[in-house]
Batch of 2 targets.
Target 1
Amino acid sequence: MRILLVDDEAEFVSTLAERLTMRGYQADYSITAGNALDLAAKHLYDVAVLDMKMPGTSGLELQAKLAEKHPAMRFIFLTGHGSEDDYSAGSRQAAHYLVKPVDINTLIAKINQTVFANDR
Amino acid sequence: MTDNLTPAPSVPGETGLRYVARVTASMSHEMKNVLAIINENCGLLEDLSFAAKKGAPIEPDRLDRTCRQMAKQIERADSILKTMSRYAHSFDHPEEPVDLHDLCQLVATLAGRLAAMRRITLMVEKPEAPCMVHKHPFALQALLWQCLELAIVAASEGSTLTLIPQAAAVTIAGIDRIEGLNGGMSSLPATITGEGTSPRLTLHLA
């Protein structure tokens, strides 16, 4: 399974990618929306885990751009915000909406649910 | 004796509450990011320990790097909490001498994330001589925050907003468009100058 992680907190997203790789996933990461779109153009990702709040392009805007170009890609939102508005918007656009910090086993369970639900 | 519950004078209740809510949301978001990084690095140490127990070699440099990342985030959290403490205790005294340079630095720090979301840099100009006013520090923060929020919306992505403390006033330079500013300024003791070329928003604090 190939996973795209996007978050402007470089130390968060690089460490998460490393931990997912140790568990056998192919995990790439980006700290900008532009670079994430470039990566998605080069590789076929099963799922993208996106930060809701990023400088410039928001997670919701990035999700819309990725979904338009890669209709099979599935999405999970991660956020530090727990506002009702964010939850409503995130839940409409993605399979799951998780609030940081997230236990990696919970994230993996959500990734598997998202991808395998899509396969059925 | 100071009554800590005395409302700040000259700031409408809704303005003060909105300021508190916005700052709290922004700072808590920052703290969530700090916790998320520490959580991942802690998890990575567990992963490396687990792998070592199964016979994988331990890389001391990898452990050092992980510890340094955690130490850096602890420093970041400490800085966030010091700023929050300073902001929270600004309500302790109804009126006191306020250094407008300090005020600008505090509000710019509190608004840092809000500005970063629009890729805007905040700078504070240091005056040649101290600019002091005798006011409620919380009330001044709430007013300056409101002006800065308007200025951030009125600035282009990638630009720099400069807060300039002056005698009994703070000017915000670097605004690109004044459309929409006027409506938001109706309740503020503020004016716009230089509308044709380089608009500036000045908050009057006399």
Target 2
Amino acid sequence: MTAPLPLSGRQPKAVRSALHVLEEVVSAGPGVTAKEISESLAMPQATTYRILNLLVAEEYLVRLPDLSGFALGRRAARLALPAAATLTTAARAVVDHMRAQTRWAVHVASFAAEQISLVDPDPDHPAPDAGALARFPYAFALGRLLLAEQADWRALVRDVRPFTARTVTSESELDRTLKAVARDGLARQCGEFREDRGCIAVPIRGPRDGRLVAGIALAGPTARIAEPNEEIIRLLRDHAARLAPLLA
Amino acid sequence: MRDDARLRLRSRSPVEGLERRRLGPLEVFAQSVSGAAPSAAMAATPAIVAVSAGHGTVWSFVIATVLALLVAGCIARFTRRMAASGGLYSLTAKGLTPAAAYASALASLLGYGLLAAGALVGATLYLGALFDVLWGTSGGRVGAAVVMAVIGLGTGVLVLRGARLSARVVLLAESISITLMLIVFSLLLAGGPAAAAAPADATAMPPPGFGGIVAGVLPALAAFIGFEIATSLGTEVRRPFRSVPRAVGLTAAVAGVLYVFAAQVQVFGFSATPGGLAGQAEPVVALAAAKGWGWLPVLLDLGLVMSFVACGLATATALARVLFSLSRDGVAPQAFGRTHRRFRTPHLAVLASVPVTTGVPVVLLAAGVPLPTVLVTVLTLAACGFLLAYLLVCAAAPVFLHRIGELTWPAVAVSAVIVPILLIVLVAFVVTRPLSGALLGGLAVLGAVGYLLLRRRRPEALAGIGVYDETTTADVLFPHRGAA
């Protein structure tokens, strides 16, 4: 299964054509056909078809149910940076109310365009490592919320490596962990990124469509996070529910 | 929401319930290789081809490999653009009429069902031979029936438990099998030609001639059947548009290389024997005996058992997917479209099909039909089913491309070459095997009756035949809404 890639770095023209095709699908809008793309780019048909099939195989584009129209696939969202999101005053008040209830750090992350961005890290605590959170989502409670929502979480995980002795790195174990997250609507990691820190996160879902828009997390000492924490989780869920209409 | 309606996007895939996007490229590749079961064909097919092709046997295999690659190319026109669970019939439906898709579905069911049964018979047969060599007894008819039931049960459980688990077992078994085969054939090659015992009715190998080579293509092409099994796993593969066409194409290429190698070794091995390869019933065993290597058949039998078990698993997996897909089409009973909540497999389709593909061989065995006869008949009939399905999918490819506005001249050229050849091969196959021809004729009549009934009772299901894993609302990124 190691056939050479149809495009290599030595084919700048092909790479350029692929980018033009992507751009054309964006500007023409969903439903544009191969023939239309080939005509408007003045690109040979066979080349256009080959590039389109490649972009579909890589999931940057999708074919619509009529099989002749194209649209941007979800993976294309990852090419763009998510718009810098800030919380509204109303939402910030809810988060601050949660912060007043606990000595632990309370962070809020947005999952727009399938990327994790901290929209409201706790100002009174050390901020989580945003770069690591984006690159190694499987080792964070917030990251696991996002992964658990995917049809195939592997698409969002580039490399899996251990940070501490506790980091879950086996594919099947991660799979089980994420299934549990999806089932319980609760993600937890204890000392998997830093020995002494752990995290609990619950999803914030759009009130109308139930789609995952953000997550709210509690970060604290590993040993304490590992406890059942029923009371504080109930509180966290409560605040997540109040945030839902303000974020979706 | 207006966009969804205009683009005819559904919120859920019509084949929902299967474990979507899980299998890796190697796992799908292994399924396809196992479907083709190259080990068995390496051992048995060259002698059959040699009967007509003589010293040109290797060329028959080269031509058959080219044909298989062309068929793989036609299949790839679809699998690079759509991911299906029903295999070839779902693809055919996008190019030809519902009647053609229905015929392809029946041909696939026949092909996979018979191949699954044949694989079970083959595994039993060679396990018996293995017992015979090692312990001096093959266990008799009762032993064979028990072996069949156990393998059938194991196959059913694995296929039920999930595509991923059975794919891994298949990968392991097939790797061992091919490794054993390569060892066996390399040893034979290194040993040089042997003066093997010629059969009593030995006639000279036919001289190499064009006609003989062409006639040899027939059985050589039949050695490839099952190589397209990856197409029925489209929904369950991680990157289907890349992995499925590659798995099918690479299987054709790998099997082709193995066959050419095996044919060369055997033609060379029997070059000093009167009658040559053509007169041999068990060429590898005869060669080993001539060299005094009594232990070699043990390796061979072990490899064959592994290969047949893997083939049985791969075909049972595909058979259940075809039934599942037909059920979602509204053509097969609705129950077959249900999936197990935890294993994410079409469990009712498995429970309906595996007992049949296991039970029929057991009944035939109990009735006293010799297993080798069952194996040959079943494989011949299966080959006819596969050839028909290949013929239809190759004819459908350019029509499909034209329909979606992506037709190119190579697609037309390939189909223009391969369709008439497959038609000739299919006709020759049926004509030269009168018993199979009669059986197939009967099945064709039954199929036609089923088609007419279906057209009367559920015309809308028939018209919409060919569900596949469509892009859903959740897969599309809308410019004004961001990720849905």
